[in-house]
Structures are given as structure tokens and as C-alpha cells.
């Protein structure tokens, strides 16, 4: 974990030295937030919550197959 943090600090210093301020602030904000888990929840046709990845992919595929792209 400490090696990862040292690498992040090194990246921030490098961006600061090259005047890449936008990346400096983005990396600092990411560094301060730390790891944040993601939850993937989708409602199925009946309105029930679906959490397993296979059902979510199936649901998204169904939604996009019904979409009229023209």
C-alpha cells in the first residue's frame, strides 16, 4: 500500500513540475477520497432490484435492443 501511495505522490510532483495543474488537482482529489466501492443495481421488468452482473447485462441488452436509434 505504501508503494502505491509513494507512486501517487511521485505522479503529483511530476505533474506539478511540468505545470500540469489540472492533473495535479485530479490526483490530489482522488488521493483524498481513497477507494470507494461501486454498487450496480438495476430494476427488472417487474420493478424488482437485480444485483448480479449476468442479470444486469441481460437487462441492459434488452433495454438497448428496444431503443430506436434513428
Q: What does this protein structure show overall?
A:
The protein is mainly alpha-helical and 70 residues long. It has 2 domains: 2-33; 37-70, no CATH class. The chain has 3 helices and 2 strands; from the N terminus they run H-H-E-E-H. The protein has a two-stranded antiparallel ribbon with strand order 1-2. Strand 1 and strand 2 form a beta hairpin. The longest helix has 16 residues, at 2-17. The mean pLDDT is 84.
Query: What string gives the helices and strands in order?
Result: HHEEH
Major β-sheet, in short? 2 strands, antiparallel
What Rg do the Cα atoms give?
20 Å
Give me the side-by-side strand order of the main sheet: 1-2
Structural class: mainly alpha
Q: End-to-end span in angstroms?
A: 49 Å
- As residue ranges, the low-confidence spans are none
Beta strand count? 2
Q: Residue share in helices? A: 55-70%
Give keywords.
70 residues; mainly alpha; two-stranded antiparallel ribbon; 6% strand; elongated
Itemize the secondary structure elements and their pairings:
Layout (H helix, E strand, L loop, with lengths): L1 H16 L3 H13 L8 E2 L5 E2 L2 H14 L4
Antiparallel strand pairs: 1-2
Helix pairs in contact: 1-2
Compose a concise summary of this entry:
By secondary structure, the protein is mostly helical. The chain has three helices and two strands.
Amino acid at each position: 500500500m505504501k508503494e502505491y501511495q509513494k507512486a501517487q505522490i511521485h505522479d503529483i510532483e511530476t505533474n506539478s513540475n511540468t505545470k500540469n495543474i489540472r492533473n495535479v488537482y485530479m490526483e490530489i482529489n482522488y488521493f483524498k477520497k481513497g477507494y470507494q466501492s461501486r454498487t450496480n443495481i438495476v430494476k427488472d421488468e417487474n420493478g424488482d432490484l437485480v444485483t448480479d452482473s449476468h442479470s444486469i447485462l441481460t437487462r441492459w441488452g434488452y433495454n438497448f435492443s428496444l431503443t430506436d436509434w434513428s
